[in-house]
Predict the 3D structure of the following.
Amino acid sequence: MSNLKKFIIIAVVISVLLINTDATPDKTSLKVRSQMLKGNMVPIIVIMKEQSSFNVMSSENIVLSLKKQAIDSQTDINYLMDEEKAKGNANKIKQFWVINAISLQASPELIDRLAKRDDITSIELDSRVVAQWDYSAQISQSSIQNATLEIKRINAPEAWELGITGKGINISIIDSGINSSHPDIASRVIKWLDLVGFQPSPYDDFGHGTHVAGTIAGNGSGGTTTGVAPEANLFGVKALDGNGNGYETDIITGIQWSIENKADVISMSIGTTQTWTTPNCNADNYAMATATQNAIDAGIVVVAAAGNSASGVSSPGCIAGTIAVGAVDSSDTITYFSGRGSAMVDHGLVAPGYWINSLDYRTSGYTSKSGTSMATPHVSGTVADLLQAAKDKGLILSPGQVKNILDNTSVDLGITGKDNIYGAGRIDVFEAIRQYSNCTINGTVRDNFSGIGIANVIVSINANISTMTNEEGFYSFTALEGDYNIMAVSDPKYITNNTIAISTRGKMFVHKDIELLKKPTGNITGNIFG
């Protein structure tokens, strides 16, 4: 080869490298670069360089801090966006404060210019997300009755009997919407945001979100109780269209709105087609991971589907800090479609997700569906019950505490301990709330001879906890777990029995009948000598 030919080849290689290096710096993701080659507008998320981190701060202060940072750092780029929109290089521009970022559809030329700015740290593709259900069918009334066994299997009714129903807890469902006219959730969709059709009132044109809402909070007004937390408040965020598809930026908008409207739980039965087998996928999903972590820092528990692909866990379920939810069938065996991988060991668990009966968005009745979408709301409802149980005791649980409680009270499945299929195990509502619930102690105080109940007997277990029997001799009061000495006093007619020792440890109900012996009566005769 001649020296001239060598020089020409080297020159061409250098020029190609210079062109590629100059065109799009590394801060632009490979997915975005791939879309740029088509020459069309590309949906992107522009991540600003300045991002917040929090230690101990109230949710109100976190929100104020995030908003201030976004306003301060986005001022210059907003002027650019206005100019580029006028030129036709940008549209659908949206600002965020939950993560310091801007989303838009941008021309390849504009993306090149944005990538060179010092105030921008990365440019990501606005990825598509889809509802995570498998299939559906209308079922008979007898099948509906059987479907309620899933709620019973996770021991939700035992919690209801103690007054733990998710009352006062706000759950934000980011999904396809909610048919709020269904009798089982009527009047409980208290806040609404439509990012698709921009309608002022709740609706659902796909059915997925309504089914999820029913598993969280369906109260059975239409005939079957489907919800784990049948008195919880619901927020509806419509981020998926009539085909069950949506964009990551709308999910982030829903998270941001949920924080601002003081949600306690965010439930996301959605996922990407891409999956991860790593403990988390934060590095590959910076925008979603940052938004999610800021919600968690604001005190919100984030529950997300593990996805319907056994090849890994999809986003946002794979994001650290969330509770990723896989699906088991009626025998507590993992379903063929349930997401699995190291993320399940790190922050996952499972719940019923096969052939789950819940609300039909087209009628006032019910339908059956399968998927990790169906498992996720079982966990969201459980979280609501747990938050209410703690709140009733004057306690506020952090998202980390909630996760630890669920990990420690779930039924271990598969190999011993956490694993990449079942995570921490299958949820158990009653076990989760047990430590925050009082035990009921009751019984009847009876006459030792006749067996008839004695009215107006004072029954106590200590100086501060006492009650009085009714006309039939029945008594009842509540107490925390512990060991007690129960006493019954009815002076001057009866002699108090010996103190009875009872224990409420590991129990929610203690029944103890008590017998009292009448004091002897009669005439006494004799002489008194003084």
Remarks:
- The chain has three domains: 19-126, 130-393, 438-518.
- The domain at 438-518 is CATH 2.60.40.1120 (Immunoglobulin-like).
- Residues 1-23, 135-147 have pLDDT under 50 and may be disordered.
